[in-house]
Amino acid sequence: MRASTLLILDDDGNDAEIIASEAQTQGFEVRIFDDANLFMAAFLAERPSHLAIDILMPGVHGVSLLQTLAQHQCQSSIILTSGIGTAALPAVQLAAIQYQLNIRGILHYPFHQHILRNMLSDQASVDLHAHTGNGLSTQPLIVDARTIDEAIRNHEFTVFYQPQIDLVNGNVIGFEGLLRWNHPLLGIKLPDLFIPIAEKTGQITQLTQIVIETGFHFIRSLGTTLSFSMNISANSFRDQSLTNVLVSACQACDLPPERVILELTETATLEDPEQAKKILSRLRTEGFKLSLDDFGNNNASMTLLANLPFTELKIDKSLVSTLEASSKSRKVIASTLKLAESLKIETIAEGIENTLAAIGLRELGCRYGQGYYFARPMDQGTALHWLQGWNRQF
Ligand code: C2E
Ligand code: MG
Ligand code: MG
Question: Is the pTM value of this prediction over 0.90?
């Protein structure tokens, strides 16, 4: 394989030039093609280190092109380029898993220079669906009881949705709801900034209520099968009224509790295992499913799984992100999957950022997955649009 060579397949000369000039400043030798046959011929002759492929070229079928590359044992790092909202994207992503290609990421026009730079460099792969509104501001945000209260009253808290995928057949099985603070001046803010404080002040109860109300309606509007996963803090978990709140919310929007998965971390359950058992059993009796979130992130207590009625185990992204490089991680994941299987507990992995992770997990026997590789958490409108595009492919 030739180091630092990049072949670009793109029918838009401008787009190709932008990629080419960035690559050249990084020392790449670059050639541009607008004809897929010539591109393939050059690939076979040169075996370049990198490829940039426009998946939406007239007369070229993106999936078949990937298949041909795979048949020729393509080892190149591949950057897929496309316009925003390209309907063919899911099929191409899934094909990349099937064919075990090394996809570095998906570049949506118009793209940011630094994203491309990242993909060309040897750093971890990035898939920036930047247009889904995850943009971060660097300005400070004052987070205290007063500002949270104001934000609740102004309806600034909102729920983003990240799809969960069946790694075997590519079906979407559900969405996880993740809180966002849509600040009028600072933009979208992530939960790490405000959840710990809301837990201290007790306002987490109101935030959980927002996720329940918004999320249940959204998932109900999507039909009768998809599940909705939501996070429950330790404090909310101890709140005696939680079960009743969940049950009434399900009744109010005609959502069977079986479609709701409550994600809990070990801290929530470890503090008072006896009390936890009571609450969890009650929730299970009502039909709610229970997921042990962030499994493998700290000193996971396997006995929790044996003693408490969890229905799902969520493999933490710290294990998933090291799956490729660390045989230890692979072993931990493998034995975790075995344990779950013997306990008849479902397994889902989070933090899948690239094809290799998706392939690796599927090979180890993990059935479900979630991560930037498939989609970032998205606002409701974007999530709906994304789901329609994905489903059109299957
Ligand atoms: P979590 O429940 O483990 O959620 C997964 C986190 O991983 C999310 O971060 C998600 O955006 C991120 N993620 C998803 N795919 C990838 C990937 O491929 N790579 C990487 N590096 N990260 C990925 P987010 O949305 O910032 O949430 C962080 C944590 O905040 C959540 O972790 C959860 O513990 C908490 N949280 C979010 N929403 C709520 C909520 O409504 N209630 C409570 N109590 N906690 C929440
Ligand atoms: Mg979670
Ligand atoms: Mg997690």
Answer: no
